[in-house]
Amino acid sequence: RKFELIQKVDEDDVIYHVIGPTHSKGSNFQDFVLLASRRVPCADGDPYLIALRSVSLPAAPPTEDLVRSEVLCAGFTLWEEEDAQTRITYYIQATPGILPYITCNITGLSADLCKIIEACHKFLEQNKDMTNVAL
What we know:
seven-stranded mixed β-sheet
């Protein structure tokens, strides 16, 4: 897996190139070019938002050795429930192309989601005292 910052658009928006395993025949890896946008809460009780979507960027053209994939719309909401607890919810707009990932290997999917959640938890713990965390 590879996760590379391509461009910082502004303080709240960045573009990443992500490479990971695929379930497609003919290739072992797929890639995404993702715009990640964060929105800090506007008022007490509002969630912290992180939104993701695929974008096209000349600096990251498709290559023959990777299957270019697309995220239509995905993201996280982080709700502070108590002083020591935060509820994290993940959303994704799925297409039929996602079905092989879900039906092929539920255990692998669960393990991948677990790794993502653990990474988010680690990030939040490391940055809990920062009021202006960068993506």
